[in-house]
Amino acid sequence: MVSLVMLTLNHTGVSHTVFHLLGIPGLEDQHVWVSIPFFISYIITLLGNSLLIFTILTKRSLHEPMYLFLCMLAGADVVLSTSTVPQALAIFWFHAGEISLDRCITQFFMIHCTFLFESGILLVMAFDRYIAICYPLRYTTILTYTRIGKIGVTTFLKSFCTVFPIIFLLKRLTFCHNNIIPHTFCVHIGLAKYACNDIRVNIWYGVFVLLSILVLDVVPIFISYVLILRAIFSMPSQDARRKALNTCGSHVCIIILFYGPGIFTTLTQRFGRHIPPHIHILLANVNILIPPMLNPIIYGIKTKQIRERVAHVFFPKHK
Predict the structure, then answer these.
(1) Considering the entire predicted model, what is its pTM?
(2) Nearest residue to 125 via CA among 229, 25, 217, 27
(3) For 60-93, how does the pLDDT look when each residue is reduced to its tens digit (9 = 90+)?
(4) For the chain, first and last CA: distance in Å?
């Protein structure tokens, strides 16, 4: 019967317009318990990043390039989490996994575009640290407010233009295979594999996007820090070296936190063929949940100005 239906779909050209997200297959009985860390991490992400944005925007002394870029990163973290976690919670709590094709494409577009934007901002922050340490006297003249705004807009447009073609690559497909997606959110190839058409263009474009992140973001970040470390260790004063390293510490932690889970997830998908499917899905969610939750905590702990401003917000001094 199923074979007959599939054969009919293939010949009539009928395409699914509604899909069903299963959440985490194999852990259906544990969905309520799994939802607890999802919910807690989402609340911490919203509160932490919102507080970070408020702190930076309301404190004049924090209107420096590094903190303004951090503000952009915090905003992107909120968008990334909001694009995924509420949908996952709806599946866990209410079994509301039904999603239209257009909404599915919109969700994956938001996820991919935000991820690329964050990667670009991390590159810009590495450039910021390079200028601050290697050319401190020219720092304020190079990174003016106008230039910071242009950098933010350019980074967003680069991310938008890189992901936008995928919408048309998916829209051209006919989804006549299964419409059950064993995941908590929509992803490009995860959706494309249910098409009857040839999806080699989708696969190769996905590879192109990954290579663009590697070539345009990861490699320049690495080169920036090689130059930064060379400049730091050529400083005559040990105290100056310590202060310079400390200014880069938070950013390095966030870089590792952002790319680390993604690289690990990619490796497990490529080589971990015997790993249960629910582990792959949990790892993909870790890549979405953990960095946005920990980014404001890391900067809050390691940056004195932010700590003092947050303390003032919650515990104002009485005159």
Answers:
(1) 0.90
(2) 217
(3) 888 999 999 999 999 999 999 999 999 999 999 9
(4) 79
Q: Distance of CA 234 to CAs 129, 134, 227, 229, Å?
A: 16, 11, 11, 8
Q: How many domains does the chain have?
A: 1
- Residue 8 belongs to a domain: no
25-38 confidence digits (pLDDT tens): 888 899 999 999 99
Amino acid (one-letter) located at 210: L
CATH number at residue 83: 1.20.1070.10
Pairing of strands 18-21, 180-181: parallel
Residue 132 included in any domain: yes
How large a percentage of the chain has pLDDT more than 90?
60
Distance CA 265, CA 111 (A): 16
Residue 205 lies in a domain: yes
Sheet containing 18-21: order of strands = 98-100, 18-21, 180-181
